[in-house]
Specification:
mainly alpha, 15 helices
Length: 284
């Protein structure tokens, strides 16, 4: 790719800055449906930006640069994670495919020991995005919490406030925490839907202190029973049904003396969680 001698340097710098910002935003959004729709366009902008930088560094001559390799890595891993077969991620990263879950200790240890830390970062980032996106379909509050932790970790890495080895260690630890969540209902003696509402109630620290674990679990169990009886497939479209549910939730919170100043926020979160789960309930 050739550029004329009178190429507008100011415009070139603006373009490269915009591509960098776009790439950072895209990495935080993957694998949302919206980000997947624009993946090819983002790749085009990145490829043009890489070509401009390569020309600057080599004067139009020479082989691939380190940035060229990094760009190829990001595109390969992104395509692999988006595909229907998760095993492609292992192939893209040059990893063995263990006959265990993706976030197993064996796999995470293999990623941690990879020589190319940038590739390890890309693999973990994409896989964790995917795990959190799956979690959002059932455990809204926990998914939000993990998404924020992942976003903060990625931002610190992109701002170069932490080294690659440290951020990989943090992502591995986050992966283990996400994996632990999958079996938490067994330890709490709650079903998955009850765990989801338990988390919604526990968002308020004062409620946890004042009511205690057992009371919050009872509220969660009663919420599930009440909401199952009163939600339908189109309940989110009916203002009257939403108003009735809001009253029911507040009555239940009052019954167990949930902190009055926190009831409005708790009710909002409970109904948001119900919205996530109601599709499964309506098919019963």
């Amino acid at each position: 790719m050739a550029f004329s001698a009178d190429f507008d340097r100011q415009g070139k710098e603006r373009y490269l800055k915009a591509v960098t910002e776009l790439s950072h935003a895209f990495s935080l959004a993957v694998p949302s449906d919206e980000s997947i729709e624009i993946r090819d366009e983002v790749a085009l902008f990145q490829a043009v930006g890489a070509a401009i930088r390569k020309f600057e560094q080599t004067g139009g001559e020479g082989g691939p640069t380190e940035e060229d390799y990094d760009m190829a890595i990001r595109q390969i891993v992104s395509n692999a994670v988006v595909s229907d077969e998760v095993v492609n991620v292992f192939d893209a990263a040059g990893l063995k495919s263990p006959n265990v879950a993706v976030l197993s200790d064996e796999f995470l240890d293999e990623v941690r020991r990879m020589d190319r830390k940038n590739l390890a970062f890309e693999v973990l980032q994409k896989l964790l995005h995917d795990e959190i996106r799956t979690m959002q379909k059932k455990f809204l509050v926990k998914a939000r919490s993990f998404a924020k932790m992942l976003e903060d970790t990625i931002r610190r890495y992109q701002n170069q406030t932490v080294e690659a080895a440290q951020v990989i260690a943090e992502l591995v630890e986050l992966a283990k925490n996400i994996r632990t969540e999958q079996g938490r209902g067994v330890h709490l003696h709650l079903r998955d839907d009850e765990v989801a509402f338990y988390d919604a109630l526990c968002e308020n620290e004062s409620a946890v202190r004042e009511l205690g674990d057992e009371t919050l679990k009872k509220i969660a169990q009663e919420l599930v029973v009440m909401l199952r009886k009163n939600t339908s497939i189109d309940w989110t479209l009916k203002q009257s049904v939403q108003a009735k549910l809001r009253v029911y939730v507040k009555k239940l919170l009052n019954k167990y003396k949930y902190p009055p100043d926190k009831q409005e926020a708790a009710t909002k979160t409970v109904l948001e969680q119900a919205h996530v789960l109601c599709k499964d309930w309506s098919g019963e």
